[in-house]
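Case study: TRAP-type C4-dicarboxylate transport system, small permease component.
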Amino acid sequence: MKTVFSTYNSIIDRVNRIAGWFIAILLVVMTILISWQVFARFVMGSPLEFSEEIARFIMIWLTMIGAAYAYRKGTLISVDVLIEFTGRKITKSLNILVPFISIIFALALIIYGFDLLDRVSSQTAPSTRISMFWPNLAIPISGILILFNSIALIIDEFIEKGDS
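Here is what the predicted structure looks like once written out:
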């Protein structure tokens, strides 16, 4: 059983590695796009009509996928005061409880994210004419990643418990 859990976690870690590269590429693209926009506006005197909208869409993807990625890495901002003042058993319990709460949040992102996609799929962005489906697709995808990462964090806790 431990092998199944380890295999699951290694697959999730590979998915997160791909997500990390995706985030890095989006960040580079957004930086180039914004720099180009600033150059076009202030040096050439002719701003690009589409760059701000695309930068917003990229920022949505960066935020949503980045949150799922940071959650698995343990680098999301958190309040550790409770953990600092509790014993080892309570800390272990909290380390399992928090991912279960995150699963509920992830399921809400998935369910309502797909519902949102259904409602906005016929809308288009004003300057790029891109379907609003694409920027909003980040919401359920992020929910799926958070769900899988939450399960991986729970597995990590049980594997650690089994090792000690």
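For the exam, be able to explain this: Residues 2-163 form one domain.
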